[in-house]
């Protein structure tokens, strides 16, 4: 029976790192964004925007718009690096611009090398996953997280199973060697005549897992948040066993993440409701 430990561990590690870094960075991020938080409308608009972007990037290959997509992605990642460095360097723009320049230069000069394709692209993908979680996590509330969860899962199912845009988006991004996902060889190694088997998980899925864990931490505390992160990773581990042995095809990872996160969240919610009832008595 085939199984994989590297991606579930990577998912757990990035979620855990984001969880602890959020405690140190959230106050400064909130101060920068003037305590702004997403309303229901904002969560819905974010999902719509993400779905549109995925669909447009998926269409880019058919109409030969690969270079503009490359520029757009480079700009987006560079802007994210700049914003974080700017905030945490006490708004020194001349320091904030350096990580963005380094990223662009490394991509332009090394994107066709083994160093970039197997190592640097994954390192940057992990960095961007953490930064996106920290940046967006500070804008959500418990209520908008639930709304976002329902909407993004619905959109993911449609983009994977109906329009197939998510699969095409991944092919475009990976073809451009952009850090849109973390791609790792399955461990224990699976070697066939076609080569070594790899496993891939998109940054959006890392963000989703991190967001749910951060909001769980805010609502129920550190223990439940860590348990939530572990449960998500275990759910992904079980899914990979099924996928590797029985049905290796694209599947909405958001569903797997929710299946892992819901049991701890609902269990804690049940205890919270019970305490409120006892208090009223």
Model description:
The structure is a single chain. By secondary structure, the protein is mainly α. The protein has one domain (6-280). Helix content is 77%, strand content 5%. It is built from ten helices and four strands, in the order H-H-H-H-H-H-H-E-E-E-E-H-H-H. A two-stranded antiparallel sheet has the order 1-4. The chain has a two-stranded antiparallel ribbon with strand order 2-3. It is globular, with a radius of gyration of 19 Å. The model has no long low-confidence stretch (mean pLDDT 89).
Task: Name the features.
two-stranded antiparallel ribbon; two-stranded antiparallel sheet; mainly alpha; 281 residues; 4 strands
Brief rundown of the structure:
The protein has about 280 residues and is mainly alpha-helical. The chain has helices spanning about 5-30, 40-60, 65-90, 95-110, 115-135, 140-160, 165-175, 205-220, 220-245, 255-280, and strands at about 180-185, 190, 195, 200. Strands 1-4 form a two-stranded antiparallel sheet.
């Amino acid at each position: 029976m085939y199984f994989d430990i590297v991606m579930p561990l990577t998912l757990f590690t990035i979620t855990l790192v984001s969880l602890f870094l959020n405690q140190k960075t959230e106050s400064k991020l909130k101060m920068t964004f003037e305590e702004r938080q997403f309303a229901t409308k904002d969560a819905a608009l974010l999902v719509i925007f993400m779905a549109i972007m995925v669909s447009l990037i998926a269409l880019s290959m058919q109409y030969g718009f690969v270079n503009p997509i490359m520029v757009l992605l480079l700009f987006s990642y560079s802007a994210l690096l700049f914003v974080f460095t700017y905030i945490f360097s006490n708004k020194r723009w001349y320091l904030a611009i350096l990580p963005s320049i380094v990223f662009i230069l490394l991509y332009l000069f090394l994107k066709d090398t083994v160093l970039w394709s197997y190592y640097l692209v994954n390192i940057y993908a992990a960095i961007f996953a953490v930064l996106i979680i920290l940046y967006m996590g500070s804008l959500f509330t418990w209520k908008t997280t639930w709304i976002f969860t329902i909407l993004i899962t619905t959109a993911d199912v449609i983009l994977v199973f109906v329009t197939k845009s998510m699969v095409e988006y991944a092919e475009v991004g990976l073809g451009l060697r952009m850090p849109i996902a973390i791609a790792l060889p399955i461990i224990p190694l699976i070697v066939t005549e076609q080569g070594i088997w790899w496993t891939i998980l998109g940054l959006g899925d890392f963000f989703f897992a991190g967001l749910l864990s951060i909001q769980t931490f805010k609502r129920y505390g550190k223990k439940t948040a860590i348990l939530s992160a572990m449960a998500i990773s275990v759910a992904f581990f079980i899914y990979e066993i099924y996928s590797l042995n029985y049905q290796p095809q694209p599947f909405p990872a958001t569903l797997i993440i929710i299946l892992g996160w819901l049991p701890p969240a609902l269990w804690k919610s049940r205890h919270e409701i019970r305490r409120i009832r006892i208090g009223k008595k």
